Amino acid sequence: MTGQLTKPHSIFYEYGGDRGIPDPPDCLADLLLDHILDAIAADDVSGDLRRMFYARARNTDEVAYRQRVFRDLACDQTRLSIETFTRAVATVRDHLGRATKLWHPLQRQGWFLQAIDVYCRAVERLRDELSSADLNSSGLREFRCYLYDYTDSPEFLSLRNETESISAAMQQIRYTVHITGLHVHVDHYRDEPDYSAQLARVFDRFRHEAAKDYHVRIPDYPDMNHVEEQILDRVARQHPDRFQRLSAHCARYTNFVDPTLDRFANEIRFYLSYLHFIEQFIDAGLPFCYPTVTPTFRGIYAEDAFDLALAAKQRSEGDSPVQNDFRLTGRERILVITGPNQGGKTTFARTVGQLAYLAALGCPVPASSATLMLPDRIFTHFERQEHLTHLHGKLDDELLRIHEILASATNCSMIIMNESFSSTTIVDALQISTEVIHRIAATDCVALCVSFLDELADLDPSCVSMVGGVSPDDPTERTFRFTRRPADGLAYAIALADKYGLSPEILLRRVAR
Amino acid sequence: MKVRLLHPDGSAARSPTVPAHLAPLVEADLELNAVYRAMAAGDEYLRQIARDVLLSSVTDPYVIEYRQNVLADCEANEPVVQRLYAIAVEASQTQRRIFLGGLFTKEPTAILRRGVRMLDLLIENLHSLRQVCDQHAHEFDSDGFHQFWTMIADQLDDGYLGALHAELAELELPRGTLLSARIGLGNKGCDYRLHRPARHSWWERLTGADRSGAGFTLDARDQAGAEALTELAGRATNDAANTISQAVDHVQAFFAELRQELGFYLGSLNLQRALRSRGIPTCYPTPTPRSPTRFRCEGLRDIALCLTTTAPVVGNDVEAAEVDMVMITGANEGGKSTFLRSRGSAQLMMQAGMFVAAESFTANVVDGVYTHFKREEDAAMIHGKLDEELARMSQLADAIGPGCLLLCNESFASTNEREGAQIARGVIDALTAAGVIVVFVTHLYDLAQSLFDRRDPRHLFLRAERRDDGTRTYRLIPAAPKATSHGLDSFERIFG
Question: Which of A35, A356, A387, B215 could be cross-linked to A185 through a Cys-Cys bond (beta carbons 3.0 to 4.6 Å apart)?
Answer without folding.
Answer: B215
